[in-house]
Amino acid sequence: MKNKIYFVIVMLAGTLQSCSDYLDEQNPNSLSTDTYWTSLEESESNLTSVYGAMLDNWVLDIEDEFFRTDLAHPGKRTNPTGAYLPWYQQRLLADNAAVGKQWDSKYRVIWRANQVIEGLNGMSPDLKSNERWTEQMAQARFFRGLMHFYLHNIFNDGKIIIRDKIPQESTDYSKKLSTSEEVINFFREDLEYAYQNLPAQFDQKTRVDAGAVATILGTSYLYEGNYEKAMIYFKDVINNGAYGYSLETDVSILFTNTGDFNSESIFEINYSIDHQLEDGNFDEQSFFHRLSRYSAPSGRNVAAGRTIGGQGILLPSAWLTYEYSNEPMDTQDSRNYINGDVTGQLRTIPLRGSQSIAVVNDTLSPYYLFNAPQVTAFDKTSFSYYKKYTNHDIVSAEFDTGTSPWKSGRNIVVNRLSGVYLMYAECLTKTGDINGALSYINQIRQRWGLQLLGVSDGLPHDFDGEVYTESTLMEHLMYKEYPLELSVEGFSTRFIDLRRWGVAQERFSELSMTPFHLNDFSYTDAKGKEALRKQSLLEKGPGKKEFVEYTDAANAWASPNPAYLPIPQSEILNNQEIN
To answer: Fewest C-beta atoms under 10 Å: which of 93, 111, 217, 567?
Structure first.
């Protein structure tokens, strides 16, 4: 599947992917339409360049965005990585380079989508009547709408620039900011066109389909509190069998290379280490990303006797690590027992936690071909690591996946079905259907072997026995289910959620007063000998090596709060209508 889109992108790289600023992209109108837009094969090639622009690490910017939430810490607590501190401390200014790259990368996707849209519009009536023409137009408009949706949700209170065409004159580059309402209307029009004109599935799984569009449309209505409208799209994603979505029940593959395009993947960015490995580590037009480098441990794989190749920068927060490690398991599920025997010993770490993060006391789950305490020390307050974007399931070191540990071919899943279940459950909760919401949440929890929510229904599972109300179920969704199921996934999802729920200041203040400490952990090393990992096991409350997190974020949100990123300095300087 990974090989299907790459040849065309490589052929386009010289003309469409070499520019670092989106305003430098080549204008298709400078080429003769007689030779450039004469067939749907040519337009398909240019559509592929839009998918290629999505490979840019800055489009999602997972390495930065989740530091300004309650989910991640930038490196060791004793010595945070300085480049990411403005995100963690929530003091981002217009001249921050990463803010500018986020802005430019999304407008680059828009630019290329507009190239395709204008090229398709210039075709003959015969070509326009072809179903392929409609599908290509729908894909281009999806990406144009998606990028405006992303920009609207994180920049300048939603007041951004609508770019709906390729500039013809130098003066066209300068354009005024649109209101939030204008931007919403614009991207919804694009997304609705895509929703109505894309098939339920393409043979090529790398292509977006109607289910992906429905997910984004539903999310857009959820973000503005229009639950009834959001549910229309979420119900379609969940119930429309033509999409072929289902919760993945083999949880061992969910966050691994084997799980690429699994049954619950809705929108997935397709990377590879089989192409253009000669590209530099920070070439945003390459086919790899850097998240494995940022997520993997630094230093050596002790058991394998070699350097892992990680930097240990994108680290799970303390509270998240603790919750992953202590979710109540369903004691009637045999997967929760070391030998699969319900009369035996329970796992030390629940399945959702063991698939999402590495911690020192998880001696059952494979990690870089051994188990976690055998591989790395978890010292100096690096008490957990994200697994989701590493290649820990197939190699003993990130060096083995390409020419450099900076280059990972792991796919990145942007949207998946369990996220739609949770958003639908939120809508049901907000509209009074508590039992309906519980049923969708419990489907997710059951596939992980976790204790179910609510009063027992007589099935052979453990229930927490709580009688949930709208308030208590929303509390669970906000601080348990959403973050534990979807940590560091999607586009700025956690930050947007904290802001739209109106709980960001309260959340960061609470965490800034919640102490954690570290204890030693005994384990059996790869040679079968008893060994000790000092100050590696996270525990809640006061104790040795006590610390708190998010003090700076709590202060930042006190007033005025950093709810949106500023318009980048580069746009202000170059756009006379803003300047």
So the answer is: 93
